[in-house]
Design brief:
single chain, Rossmann fold, five-stranded parallel sheet, 50% helix, globular, binds 2'-deoxycytidine-5'-triphosphate
Amino acid sequence: LISHAPPCNVIEQMDGATHVKRLSIEGNIAVGKSTFAKVLKNAGQNWEVTPEPVSKWQNVEAATSQSVLSPKQTASNLLQMMYQDPKRWSYTFQTFSCMSRLRTQLQPPPASLLQSTEPAVQVYERSIYSDRYIFAQNMFELDCINSTEWAVYQDWHSFLVEQFGSKVHLEGIVYLRASPQTCLERLGRRGREEEQGIQLDYLETLHRQHDNWLINKSTAVHFDHLKNLPVLVLDASLEFEKDPEVQSALIKQVTTFLK
Ligand code: DCP
């Protein structure tokens, strides 16, 4: 297990009120972010997990309540559309996935966390930052988002992050890292239908994007608050789902990181 992180303070007391720290879990497709988020939630009462809104991307009409389907229409599965025709749908997908995540990131923490006298942490599966610096950027580099779409994406993304200010800031990132081959095996095992055409080379490019952003720090980020954000890199190559020993070793690293 490896760790490259200066610790980040978990809690700040302001006028006696608890400040909930916001942490995002990042990592390649199928590396095990949701599983790890559940492990963290079960580890302590003061951890709240905000899951990734994938189901919204699989049924856009239900998620937006913008249109009523006629009996002949089927729901739009934007995740599937993006994987089937990435040049046509990547920009639309990246817009919608980032908007749905922004909504969840803006929701206030549950009262149980706010009332807690113990250090409290809100955990997100991914963030509006990986949406941009991993996925949208990757799709631009793969020529699936054209330069006009990329300019438009960056413009509204920067505008929204600036407008929402500290409401969308994070205090730390946990990077779950495993080889692209391991992620491919886990992806096959979990069997999400839309992802079955994903090839190793796509996971390899995403792996590089994560390393460049979170380890090499060579990705050009546009927000000051992201530049010195503490990052904990965890080796997720061991199967941790059913191994309590590996789980507690990982939890220990996160707790130390947050002290
Ligand atoms: N996705 C994307 N662009 C984004 C966010 C996600 O193309 N901005 C895609 C990649 C996956 C699916 O959405 O096909 C979900 O991706 P994640 O890696 O975020 O979530 P997983 O469910 O794969 O995570 P894990 O298995 O690690 O819990």
